[in-house]
Amino acid sequence: MTTQYETLSVSDLADEIGRADGDIKARTAILDEMKCELKSRGVNAAAGHDFVITISESTSKRLDAARLKADLGDALDDYYSESTSVRVLVKPAAKLAEDA
Question: Is residue 92 a part of any domain in this protein?
Fold first, then answer.
């Protein structure tokens, strides 16, 4: 499978990932602010020319694994399963003094 990024060097690909990550974080911050504004107005639904937005609330329960481990100790060891994940951390590169 070919991608539009296969001709980029690793360095250029790192920069593209960093820019895309920054763009997504900025847009997410804007989106979160707009959602908060809509919720603060007590709106359950809103219709624009192009989109309809509905707001609903849900509650979930999650198992507190740390508390369970503290209460039951080693009795839980046989119930753990191992999984492997790959994480890509994006952070600004340190600039050399001459670039500043």
Answer: no
What value, to the nearest 5°, has the Cα angle with vertex 47 and ends 53 and 25?
A: 40
| Residue 38 and residue 51 in contact, taking contact as beta carbons nearer than 8 Å | no
Specify if 94 maps to a domain: no
Q: Which domain holds residue 30?
A: 1-77
Question: Which of 69, 88, 87, 70 has the alpha carbon at shortest distance from 78?
Answer: 69
Per-residue pLDDT tens for 43-82? Answer: 899 999 999 999 998 999 999 989 988 998 888 888 888 9
Quote the pTM value: 0.66
Structure-token match 């839980």, residue found: 76
